[in-house]
């Protein structure tokens, strides 16, 4: 699996910890899209474009709360970013919603929880033909038509 990751300057330390964690768990190749730009939307859009183009299978974004990067990433057609704060949400982002980008808050989520969120997001796959399929199809159809 190829994973794109990025953040704003406030979350640089947390991003580095996640990169090391992903490598230690051997989830796949992780590419750092940076953290220097104080305009988090720039980094979020770069990650979202990389994931939406299918060059990367998943993306991870961080800022202080995760809200800003989530909003920015979701402006990219084909990017489905979910702000996650707990393991259940991270798991359901994949299983029920086929989210391809996970957003987290560096100031609102502790390091152990971040690792658990990464596990839940990267270890689960969307269940095609599940009761969620028509719901996912609906937002994808809207996304493609805009």
Summarize the entry for a quick read:
47% of the residues lie in helices and 16% in strands. With 146 residues, the chain is α/β, with parallel strands linked by helices. A 5-stranded parallel beta sheet has the order 2-1-3-5-4, sandwiched between helices.
Mean pLDDT equals 95
End-to-end Cα distance, whole Å, is 29 Å
- Which structural class should the secondary elements be placed in? alpha/beta
Determine the fraction of residues in helical runs and give it as a percent range: 40-55%
What multimeric state do the chains show?
A: single chain
Largest sheet: 5 strands, parallel
Physical arrangement of strands within the biggest beta sheet: 2-1-3-5-4
Give the ordered list of helices and strands: EHEHEHEHEHH
Radius of gyration from the CA trace?
14 Å
Q: Using DSSP, what is the number of strands?
A: 5
Unreliably modeled segments: none
> Which overall shape is indicated by the principal axes computed on the Cα atoms?
globular
Can you walk me through this structure?
The structure is a single chain. The relative contact order is 0.17. The protein has helices spanning 12-25, 40-52, 67-73, 87-95, 111-123, 133-145, and strands at 2-7, 29-32, 58-63, 81-83, 101-105. 47% of the residues lie in helices and 16% in strands. Helix 1 (12-25) crosses helix 5 (111-123), helix 2 (40-52) crosses helix 3 (67-73) and helix 4 (87-95) packs parallel to helix 5 (111-123). It is built from six helices and five strands, in the order βαβαβαβαβαα. The N and C termini lie far apart (29 Å). The longest helix is centred in the N-terminal third of the chain and has 14 residues, at 12-25. The protein has a five-stranded parallel β-sheet, with helices on both faces. The protein has 146 residues and is α/β, with parallel strands linked by helices. Strand 1, helix 1 (12-25) and strand 2 (29-32) form a beta-alpha-beta unit.
């Amino acid at each position: 699996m190829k994973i794109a990751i990025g953040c704003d300057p406030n979350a640089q330390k947390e991003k580095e910890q996640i990169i090391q964690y992903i490598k230690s768990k051997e989830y796949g190749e992780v590419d750092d899209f940076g953290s220097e730009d104080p305009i988090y939307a720039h980094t979020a859009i770069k990650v979202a474009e990389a994931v939406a183009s299918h060059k990367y299978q998943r993306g991870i974004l961080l800022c202080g709360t995760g809200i800003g990067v989530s909003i920015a990433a979701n402006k990219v057609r084909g990017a489905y970013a979910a702000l996650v704060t707990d393991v259940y949400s991270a798991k359901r982002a994949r299983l029920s919603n086929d989210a391809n980008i996970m957003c987290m808050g560096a100031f609102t989520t502790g390091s152990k929880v971040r690792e658990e969120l990464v596990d839940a997001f990267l270890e689960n796959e969307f269940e095609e033909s599940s009761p969620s399929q028509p719901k996912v199809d609906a937002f994808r159809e809207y996304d493609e038509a805009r």
